[in-house]
Fold:
Amino acid sequence: MKPFNWQQNDWPNFTYSLKKVENLLFDYMSGVGQLDGYLQGLDRQEQLEALIQTMVAEAIKSSEIEGEYIERQDVKSSVRNNLGLNIPKDVVIDQRATGMAALLNDVRETFLEPLTQEKLFYWHSSLMMGAKDVLVGTWRTHEEPMQVISGALGKQKVHFEAPPSDNVPDEMKQFLQWFNESSPSGKHPIRKPIIRSAIAHLYFESIHPFEDGNGRLGRCISEKALSQYVNRPILMSLSRGIDADKKSYYRHLEKAQRSNEITEWICYFVKTVLFAQEQTTQEVAFTLKKARFFDHYKEQLNERQLRAVQRMLEEGPQGFEGGMNARKYIGITKTSKATATRDLQDLVGKGIFISTGGGRSTRYELALEVE
Structure:
């Protein structure tokens, strides 16, 4: 079997071809402009809610990729605490949520700054808040190999083995120099943002410098790289894009760590970033549609109708599963069947609901497109 990438003579001189992704790179930059346009259509509070939603998604999905599950409300409270929106601050018992929110907030606030050893140690300390029996805020030092393994005892498969702990300080010094010099303002800039982000993630994961938390920090580094090209914190949850097909992520990462020719990894990563970008764009566009919808219709809704509409909108761009019907409306509004029927017919008559089917099978969808 081929040696790991860091064991090969050309490490870390990554090579790749962009022929298969040139159009996708253009699509990404077009998407950045489209997302900015939607954001400009939102007021300050709505932009803030879009930011919170994205940060919460990143915190939850980045943790889930690593097999950790954090309550959404704990994460949301922690994010709002870090943004200074909760006065007094909400009490959050789960320190993982507190630490993850602190990490993501600092990544956003310091996106333009060079990446340093001290910054990575701070990020790691935030991420590992509350962790036990883990070396926190410093490079790993254990003598046994850092390996990614699967399978039962005796039948284990080593998917990857990182450089020995003794090598980590020198490897990370070289990585940090590369990251800072390849920035848009660096000595040797990589002009295409996703390409630098892809290399940064693979490079960092291959060194695996910490005892734990490398995947989550690697994704933060990738988002920092993307932010530096648009001169603002990127509004995107890369982890949500990765989590949509974790098997593909691990398969491509494992293959890329056997060679320093990384064209296939680049192709995978570009498509994943585009998918994550599209998810965020859909959500921000939905937020804009929702704002226009309420501006147009809010005064035309009674209290019951408003409650039902708000419940439907909570489901986001994917919509209310199965649409609204009389039974769901009664359950949400705690009203009678006769009142529900009148309310629903009134919503259709005003153009707020679109009905499909008939009789007991009648379903209603929101007409979010407001002229």
Residues 5-287 form a domain with the Fic-like fold fold (CATH 1.10.3290.10). The chain has two domains: 5-287, 301-366. The mean pLDDT is 93. The CA atoms of residues 64 and 290 lie 29 Å apart.
